[in-house]
């Protein structure tokens, strides 16, 4: 296959550029979230219920008229009874502090760093197409866990700027419009069969990284371009 039309590489973060024990990360996140809420004087159970409601609103209720953050804040406040504006202002310090304890659930990949630097040196436009369920501070911290910097990427998807999340095709359509690229100019690299490989439906090229494979439906990956990150590194040197 000729990849000469590719100008832009879209990378997933968790499980792709950042090898991650997803279950350990999620359980650790909610544990630390609850402890920080308690330290701020909030009712922990109410705050966690609000968090779950906000996550559900971001994932299932994208309607194109509000950002993921706006939907999260509305649902969080409605369920928890906590004013989201004051909560967000007080909670920001969490992402500069306790949140970084979760780095223990991740493993830095030197291959990922090498690939990003290789593609950057080759002049490709790099985009971090991570599920936009977190504030920008949390996403930037996880980028640094991977041994990279936010400046490596032209665009980073976070809940403040996105109206949809994966696997909605509208997430990818909005992103293409933002970066001013056609689908056939892009290669989407990710580890989640449902959330990342759905980009094929828009005409993007894709590469499924299998080191931390997520395949919730047990779908066949036969026919998908796939392999370990080591394989992807070789693919980049041979084709990009």
Give a written overview of the molecule.
The protein is of the alpha/beta class and 240 residues long. The chain folds into two domains: 8-20 and 107-239, HAD superfamily/HAD-like (Rossmann fold, 3-Layer(aba) Sandwich); 23-102. The protein contains nine helices and six strands, in the order βαααααβαβαβαββα. It has helices spanning 22-39, 44-60, 68-80, 84-91, 110-121, 136-145, 169-179, 193-196, 229-239, and strands spanning 8-11, 125-128, 155-156, 186-190, 205-209, 226-227. A six-stranded parallel sheet has the order 3-2-1-4-5-6. Helix 6 links the parallel strand 2 (125-128) and strand 3. The chain is globular, with a radius of gyration of 18 Å.
